[in-house]
Amino acid sequence: MANHQMHFSCSLQDLRSLMELRGEEAVTMIKEKYGDVNALCARLRTSPVNGLNGTTEDIVKRREEFGQNHIPPQKPKTFVELVWEALQDVTLVVLMLAAIFSLGLSFYHPPTHIRQNCGKASGGVEDEGEAAAGWIEGTAILLSVVCVVLVTAFNDWSKEKQFRGLQSRIEHDQKFTVVRVGQVIQVNVSEIVVGDIAQAKYGDLLPADGILIQANDLKIDESSLTGESDHVKKSVNKDPMLLSGTHVMEGSCKFLVTAVEKTQVSPMVEMQPLNEEKEPDEKKTLPKKEKSVLQGKLCKMAMQIGKAGLIVAILTVTILIIRFLISTFLIERVPWAHACLPIYGQFLVKFFIIGVTVLVVAVPEGLPLAVTISLAYSVKKMMKDHNLVRHLDACETMGNATAICSDKTGTLTMNRMTVVQTYIAGRYYKKLPKPDQIPAPILDLLVQGIGVNCAYTSKIMPPEKEGGLACQVGNKTECALLGFSLDLHRDYQTIRSKIPEEKLFKVYTFNSARKSMSTVLKNHDGSYRMYSKGASEILLRKCCKILIEPGKVKAFKRQDQDNLVKKVVESMASEGLRTICLAYRDFPTTDGEPNWEDEAHILSDLTCIALVGIEDPVRPEVPEAIRQCQRAGITVRMVTGDNIATARAIAIKCGILQPGDDFLCMEGKEFNHRIHNRRGEIKQELIDKIWPNLRVLARSSPTDKHTLVKGMIDSTVLEERQVVAVTGDGTNDGPALKKADVGFAMGIAGTDVAKEASDIILTDDNFRSIVKAVMWGRNVYDSIAKFLQFQLTVNVVAVLVAFMGACITQDSPLKAVQMLWVNLIMDTFAALALATEQPTEELLLRKPGRDAPLHAPSSEHYTIVFNVFVLMQIFNEINARKIHGERNVFEGIYNNLIFCCIILGTIFTQIIIIQFGGKPFSCVGLTIDQWLWCTFLGFGTLLWGQLVTSVPTSWLKFLRLPGEGTQQENPEGEMEETKTREEINHAEKEEMKRKRWLRSYNRMTRVMDAFRHNVSPRKGLEKPESRNSIHSFISNPEFCIKDSAAQVPMIVKDDAANDEVV
């Protein structure tokens, strides 16, 4: 350690003490103890210009001495902890307690005489074999619970492992700019060490503590540490201390890293644990995050299913107990005895277990598992589609998106900018001029202005592959200007070498308010020159002079400005070019020292050097992606900082606007004017008049974007609430990204602030990736709907079987272990199988909706099932016209006018319901072909009726009424009934029908009279439920009928003789 302290003439404790200071106090301490920041750099063996030497040995020594820039991740939950969490499920706890109680009672075997004295209820332990194996059920239930818990814990462990891998990927992708061996390079944040010279720019998240070496118009957001929302202005002479975790909101800087994550000494960081201990109630006041669309629907559905399952479970147990009490104490008249309590306890525990298992099967606790698996699977797959999901619920929310507010540059366009047109020295060049076509004085001003007034982090690098395009690093607009300089055969790097960044007197960095950037140079004679670049129509208004050939200055009046805008700027913009104005201003010594804080005065009286038109081609895949969004019911809006002519031209190329559309295109200034009332207040009703038809918002500020997004989300002008997705790349896009339902940050061009505020990071900055996110979001919904469709089907069947079985036989046909296995199939395996479907293009053919039902929607399949069912009933109604085995069920149908009217009315109503019922009847209209198939399937009922009629009566003897066929048949009567049709005239036939009807009526009356006198036609028979099958029931000797007129109404010979086969 001593050697290290000798090597670094500044210890960790010295740096810790220094970083605890702020403002003027810190400046004083640096001056008194070290002299200045350069001297501190020397003590840390680093160069403020060239940075570290970058050797492995040096980096290792610095990590050993000052620590590593890495916070160890929070310790993951162990598998045992996950098992314990899985055991917190109330239904599983109740089931385990019941199983343990059942297991204890199963070892109690009362003597046979006690068992007989306690009665014998159905569903009890009936023989010694079953009694000896009574422990098996309780043990099996416990094993099943263990199985369910282990599977749940394993799934949770897998999920946590996957999320940690995702977090690690995000951290690994985070890079920062440092200077090493004189080269500006990007390194992983974890590789930054004390002594590094780091460069930060607008939008960066500072990865370590440091002290300013040089700053340009620097403002920092320290709200994450102090809670103060106001931006803090930083400078070398007033407040040079930078803290990790804060955001650069304006400007740029170079700083010395003095503390890394492991050794940061910010007072706020040190006080945080104290605050948490002293004020534990503060966390309670934090606003709860609103549930996602899917979470809300699933919670609501789970509650409804859970309540229904609880009611059925309670009803099952209640019926079982009531039946047990009635059977034991009322029917069998068993007296109450304390010796019988253990046996009664066995019954009660058995009933309770049945009720709990009904509840276990009814409650869809597999739902969260299915959602987790589906989301985790989707997130993993979305990485391949260039969507880095930071917040899991954003994945499914995107499936409901109804609107996308997209940036233009880089998202809809390729973000590969090139200067293709220019206006310089009084001439408009549709193609780039050659260097000798531009007067030398103007060319020198142009090249120097581009070189120093573009961020030094922006540069053109050689192509990665031979013959490829040069690599653009940094701001793409600035890269286009630097490329323009190279096209004019002037190397901007030569100018930067002569004027390094440290020699820049002052920099007014670009922001959304200025729409421009300016850099001030101090000349040898004490005068100043300022170069400016920015939006053409804004910067031209600040120009009072313009350079013309051969390098002379000409007055630039308001009329000249208007003519230039009309002839050049609008012409460039109509071709989709971004227009930039380049200008300069001299401050002679005779005017005295300017007030550099008075921006309005400084950025005036400019001299225009040139106008350039920058082309950013539309991505070739974007028009088709936007068409897919429009087919999917998603409205795409462009929100850009470009002028309205450029924005409109790009929107037409992308397909956001079609020729002849009457949609709105407006600038941010007009938008603000139209949404404010006379008192300057934003009114929702005014926003509602604009946003439905708005397609392009140009020259917009981040505030305009936030206002638009908020207005769309809060709007009630449409039936459904808008689900809005927003893209952003700038620091000030943070509020809009946070307000949106899903915020997309640009992974390449986006600032750290935008990424922190986003839900999903587009790693390729491509709009096509947003469409992929929509597909995956809808796929998540479909996966959950498929799982629900499967689970609810099994739920209903299993619960009904258990409930009806318990009510009828006093025992559940599905045992507790069996139901737990069914539950395991439904929860784990089904979730895994159905939640891993791949998305298809067909997902984009349906309309979105935040309030769309989670279960399978009304579809042709369900409508056809319903239609076939109804048509089957209609045809079955025709079958029911004949009950004596007649073949022709249509005979005499036209004689019954009422029957015909009802049938036709039912068919007509069914057609109306199917074709026009819609949502109230959960139906969709069917085609002619589908109606014909439904009719064909319904007609099958008539064929089934004919098949049933063909079955001989002798096969159905067990269906005869008691007493039927017990009298001797009258052969003479049979002979009468078998006369040939030729011998029976019409009158005789009618008389025969009348007699048959009277005989049937008399027979029915006698049977009803017998029941009225409390005489059962089956008195003396054994209960059918005590027999194993219908066959043993028929063949039993006790199945006999005593010829007693008092018990069974007998049938006279004439009646029997004239009966037809039923």
From TrEMBL:
It comes from the Eukaryota. Its EC number is 7.2.2.10. The chain crosses the membrane at residues 90-108, 132-154, 310-331, 351-377, 787-806, 897-918, 930-951. One of its GO terms (molecular function) is P-type calcium transporter activity. It is a multi-pass membrane protein. It is an enzyme of class 7 (translocase). It catalyses: Ca(2+)(in) + ATP + H2O = Ca(2+)(out) + ADP + phosphate + H(+). GO terms for cellular component: endomembrane system; plasma membrane. Residues 31-107 form the Cation-transporting P-type ATPase N-terminal domain. GO terms for biological process: regulation of cytosolic calcium ion concentration. InterPro entries: ATPase_P-typ_cation-transptr_C, ATPase_P-typ_cation-transptr_N, ATPase_P-typ_cyto_dom_N, ATPase_P-typ_P_site, ATPase_P-typ_TM_dom_sf, ATPase_P-typ_transduc_dom_A_sf, ATPase_P-type_domA, HAD-like_sf. Keywords: ATP-binding, Calcium, Calcium transport, Ion transport, Magnesium, Membrane, Metal-binding, Nucleotide-binding, Translocase, Transmembrane, Transmembrane helix, Transport. Belongs to the cation transport ATPase (P-type) (TC 3.A.3) family. Type IIB subfamily. This is Calcium-transporting ATPase.
